[in-house]
Amino acid sequence: MRESTPVLSASKRERLGTRYSQRERELGRLPIVVYAKGTEPLSLSVDAREAKRAINKGEKIFRMDLAGVFDKQTVLLKDVQFDYLGTEIVHADFARVSLDDRIRARVPIHLVGEAPGLKQAGAILMHPTNEVMVECVVKELPEYIEVSLGTLDVGHAITAGEVTLPGKGMKMITDKHAILAQVVIQQEIVVGEATAAEGGPAEPEVITAKKVEGEEGAAAPAAKGAAPAAKGAAPAAKDAKPAAGGDKKK
User: Fold this and answer.
1) Taking Cα atoms as reference points, which of 133, 120, 123, 119 lies closest to residue 180?
2) Residue 143: which domain range?
3) Listed residue (188, 162, 165) closest to 177, CA to CA
4) Do 1 and 92 fall into the same domain?
5) What's the number of domains the chain is made of?
6) Separation in Å, CA 194 to CA 5, 190, 191
7) Are 182 and 125 in contact (CB under 8 A)?
């Protein structure tokens, strides 16, 4: 826990609801709720700029003043709500605690040192887990937990179960198999099919007209523009004699 714990000056919110919370934000205040065992939750507001700056830095423990109620009360940040874009803090929940209370909280992981495995060509560092859940008394809650990469080689990983916690009474709640850091060789992914053999790409297949089966040479098509047969014309008689070559002289 930091010696210079951030201090927030709170004031009561007389009216509750979405509309009045929005008015508080327009006045530069951040709506909050403070919970405590055995008492009703307190609907308060604090200076938005100071609160957001500390929360964004990763602060979890605060000192809070509320005129006529408590002075320098230790509070633990429990939850933060963001706007619809997920970028701006619009509300926060705190819980009143004692320095000797045992709590569970998330603590950021800071990777320190250089992993020997990164000297190998194509090696990259993966760190899928950026924070862990721990259980400890309030006064022992650290700002962050350092994890050394000094012995991390290719194909090896550092898990939550291997981390040495800074406090004797601290307990790791995060799954001990969760990977905090790992060095792997980046694989090049080839997309698409292999190119054609040397000599250029294969020529496309030419699809031709289908040949009439059983014909050596098909009859030539009718001449372009030829008149079609007269509709309804009678076919030639089967035994008709050919016409005479010319008229007979009388």
Assistant:
1) 133
2) 98-188
3) 162
4) yes
5) 2
6) 62, 10, 9
7) yes
